[in-house]
Amino acid sequence: MSIFNDTKVAFADKTDAQLKKAFWMFKMIEQPALTNIGTSVLNFSVHNNFPFVNTIVKKTLFEQFVGGETREESLKVVTQLYKRGVGSIFDYSIEGKEDEATFDAVCHEIQDIVQFSVGNPALPFIVFKPTAFGRIDLYEAVGKGSELTTSQKEEWKRVVQRFEDVCKMCFDHDKKVMIDAEETWMQDAADHLCETMMEKYNREKPIVWNTIQMYRTGRLEYMEAHAARAKEKGYFIGYKIVRGAYMEKERARASAKGYADPIQPTKDATDNNYNAGIDFIMNHLNIVSGYFGTHNEISSELVMDKMKQRSLENNSEHVFFGQLYGMSDNITFYLSDKGYNATKYLPYGPVKDVVPYLTRRARENTSVAGQTGRELRLIQKELDRRKNK
Q: Is the pLDDT of residue 389 over 80?
């Protein structure tokens, strides 16, 4: 029986009405065909400014998975989570835009988040996506070592400067910053940029953290080689490890272009690789700190067991846990209740701009075996408990 089974703790802040609405939403997401049709219609409706769509989205998906349209609006959620010992990580969830004005605007938004979070322990991390600061095709070209044109070189300088501006600001204000992982074909350039920032700003402790997707092949080897480089150059590493979020896209591209599938062959292989990543971090705490982004109960408990084996305090500064807002509350609030460093990724942004994020999350939930079913089972268990108490 799972230790993450106490629904009274998991849903202490939720009313019966909120639980019933969440149940209905997860029931919809559970149906792949319905999810695909619904997300397509939703994206089309928002793109074409259909009336009432904003209101419908805000009362359903938005309410479950997003903090608000602005940071200020999201503070209510941040405060509520922190009362229960859970930190929030603002995720400015703008996806799919590739113009310089947007890259600059997002960079300024991230800097505003840094300023907004200074002195607030409820906001322990800053986060951004590499492709929020530059085009994915440019990352790919840089990662491959392709010869860049003069204009591409100038464009890449601007990408590097955006990284620099945010990482230096986080260093100056003693805020940790996590850089998300994305598609494999852009990751080499992003990894190199992360390492450059770590070498500069992680001399005393991990300020800059990179994200490692363990559903990929070769990432454990990357971590091992990187740790050797960091040790030699004298800086600390912060790793967020996740399973990954682009499996179908990665496999389709590999097949179409005729290169080796970069994704682990099975779910078991991914789980084993993730748990090997846990081992690696926990065996290198002298140089590496870990943020374990997972909705997997076994992996979460494994981290806890390894902390006990090493006599680490539950709130060790080297170990953090994270789940997405609106999901896996049974894990998050169990951890916070026991004094671990528990966090929620808290997306925010205008409804129209956040819909691509929401629809991607809905599709991911549909494709992850057991995730939606577990949410439904736990919500039903709590509703039954309240009814029968």
A: no
List, in order, residues 6 or more apart from 241 with CB less than 8 Å away: 211, 212, 214, 274, 277, 278, 281, 290, 291, 292, 293, 294
Residue type, 198: M
Cα distances from 54 to residues 45, 49, 91, 135, in angstroms, run 10, 9, 20, 28
- pLDDT for 212-229, tens place per residue? 999 999 999 999 999 999
- Bridge partners (DSSP) of residue 212 are 241
Strand 288-293, strand 319-324: pairing: parallel
- Burial, 252: exposed, middle or buried (Cβ in 10 Å; 0-12, 13-18, 19+)? exposed
Q: With 70 as the cut, is the pLDDT of residue 73 above it? A: yes
Q: How many CA atoms lie within 13 A of 227 on its CB side?
A: 20
pLDDT at 95: 63
Please indicate, yes or no, whether the overall pTM of this predicted structure exceeds 0.70: yes
Q: What value does the mean pLDDT take over residues 120-130?
A: 96
Give the Cα-Cα-Cα angle 246, 328, 69 (nearest 5 degrees): 75
Whether the per-residue pLDDT at 34 is higher than 60: the answer is no
What is 228-290 written as a DSSP string?
A: HHHHHHT--EEEEEE--S-HHHHHHHHHHHT----B-SSHHHHHHHHHHHHHHHHT-TTTEEE
- When pLDDT is averaged across residues 299-320 and rounded to a whole number, the result is 98
Distance in angstroms (rounded) separating the CA atoms of residues 18 and 303: 31
Rounded Cα gap, residues 364 and 242, in angstroms: 14
CA distance 341 to 302: 15
Q: Three-state DSSP class for 89?
A: strand
Tell me, what's the pLDDT at 360? 64
Compute the distance between CA of residue 159 and CA of residue 138 in angstroms, rounded to an integer: 10
Is residue 4's pLDDT more than 60? yes
Radius of gyration, alpha carbons of the chain? 20
Task: Dig out the tokens for 290 from the structure.
Answer: 């870990």
pLDDT band for position 58 (cuts 50, 70, 90): confident
Contacts 24+ apart (CB under 8 A), 22-27: 22/64, 22/326, 22/375, 22/379, 23/376, 23/379, 23/380, 23/383, 25/60, 25/61, 25/64, 26/365, 26/372, 26/375, 26/376, 26/379, 27/376
**Nearest partner of 354 among 70, 24, 11, judged by Cα:** 70
